[in-house]
Write a structure and sequence with these properties.
The chain is mainly alpha-helical and 403 residues long. It has two domains: 179 residues, AhpD-like, CATH 1.20.1290.10; 118 residues, Up-down Bundle (AhpD-like). The chain has 21 helices and no strands. The protein starts with 13 loop residues before the first helix and ends in a 21-residue tail after the last helix.
């Protein structure tokens, strides 16, 4: 049994039938969500679009990427699930073990290896992604449609792992042995070392991949977004190169975000804002602050939720939803060990105050550029204002955020 209760749904329930046809079984991860069938429908729509045989990435390599990201995050449930799927697709147990233990030795074609490394970097080191990572894939011969599909595939992998950890479904298959640790930076991934002065995000604005214009009059999902958000966020416009994937994503948003049968829309937007800030995603912080203002929340309250929701005027029960003692440790995992050793005490469980976090970021802002590209988003923005310091200029993989 999962962490939450489950209810019985008819075997003819559409998503169950779709998974049965695609995989030959219905994962327990879906049964763990039966209290809210609409969220199962959202996941099924996303999975169907991403796994479509007409996609730019082969089915086998999609599953390899999903498996590798799950292993990198040490998600035993998703690792066992993806291992079974790859086995059904014809991969031998030895090939799967090679992929889990060291994908560099899994005898992958160089292009497939480059794409896998790109997805792993995006999953683990999102704040350090830059246009050079995109150009590196183009140099391997990948078209922009494939690059966009790889980004959405990575997002699906992280989404699944989040569901797995949060819901605790019973394993569908026996566990697989994982390497002791997978947190080292992926090798041979393009690194961005900024030149002093203008940060790269300020030099190049706009999407990393082309974004053909779609009108809300001709693309139905945009009409729904216009009505629910009051505008069409550039986050969605940046994905118009693949309308099929965008439509599935917007349908998931419609089923998860808009209904208020459990959480209210304001509660959901507050959660999205707090998580965006913890992930150092400046675009999403700005977007959700703007949406909360439209829903009647004072701008100062939205800013406080982003800076430290513990000090906001939210109810204690709402604050409890978002309390995660390891958020800041995860943020700083990407920093070189030689830097962390100098101020490790600042992120200890006994010193989690905002002042400690600010002190740590202030120290980091004085470190020379040569210490690593993973610092570039923070370095360029920390020097501007204390209020914005926890959501530095972190360019989205798909576009340069614009209001």
């Amino acid at each position: 049994m999962s962490f939450l209760g489950e209810v019985r749904l008819e075997e003819e329930f559409g998503p169950f039938a779709a998974f049965q046809e695609a995989l030959g079984f219905v994962p327990n991860l879906l049964y763990a969500q039966t209290l809210l069938p609409r969220v199962i429908e959202a996941q099924a729509k996303l999975e169907s679009a991403v796994r479509s045989p007409g996609g730019a990435i082969s089915r086998v390599h999609k599953e390899r990427i999903l498996l590798s990201i799950a292993a990198d995050r040490h998600d035993t449930y998703c690792v066992a699930l993806e291992s079974k799927v790859l086995s059904l697709l014809g991969m031998s147990e030895g090939q799967i073990d090679d992929l889990l233990n060291d994908y560099h030795r899994a005898d992958l074609p160089l292009a497939d290896l480059a794409l896998l490394q790109f997805c792993l970097k995006l999953s683990r080191y999102a704040p350090s992604m830059c246009s050079e990572d995109i150009e590196a894939l183009r140099a391997c011969g990948f078209e922009d449609e494939l690059i966009l599909e790889a980004v959405v595939l990575t997002a699906l992998a992280v989404y699944r792992c989040t569901l797995s950890v949060g819901l605790g479904p019973e394993a569908d298959f026996g566990p697989r042995k994982l390497a002791p640790t997978r947190i080292a930076r992926p090798r041979d991934v393009a690194l961005h070392i900024p030149s002093p002065g203008i940060h790269e995000a300020a030099r190049n604005k706009g999407p990393y991949v082309p974004a053909p214009y779609l009108s809300s009059k001709t693309f139905g999902p945009f009409a729904i977004v216009q009505k629910s958000h009051g505008f069409i966020p550039n986050f969605f416009r940046a994905q118009t190169l693949r309308p099929d994937l965008l439509e599935a994503e917007l349908e998931a948003v419609d089923r998860i975000l808009l209904p208020e049968d459990v959480l209210t829309r304001v509660q959901k937007e507050c959660i999205l804002l707090a998580v965006s800030a913890a992930n150092l995603n400046s675009y999403c912080v700005a977007m959700h602050c703007n949406l909360l203002r439209g829903l009647g929340m004072p701008s100062e309250e939205g800013d406080q939720i982003a800076v430290d929701h513990h000090e906001s005027n939210l109810s204690e029960s709402d604050k409890h939803y978002w309390t995660s003692p390891s958020n800041w440790e995860r943020v700083f995992q990407s920093f070189p060990a030689k830097m962390l050793s100098s101020f490790k005490h600042l992120v200890s469980p006994r010193n989690r105050s905002w002042n400690a976090r600010w002190s740590l970021l202030s120290i980091i802002s004085q470190i020379p550029f040569k210490w690593g590209s993973e610092l570039s988003p923070i370095l360029s923005h920390l020097r501007t204002s204390k209020i914005k310091c926890i959501f530095p200029v972190v360019p989205s993989l798909l576009f340069r955020p614009g209001a």
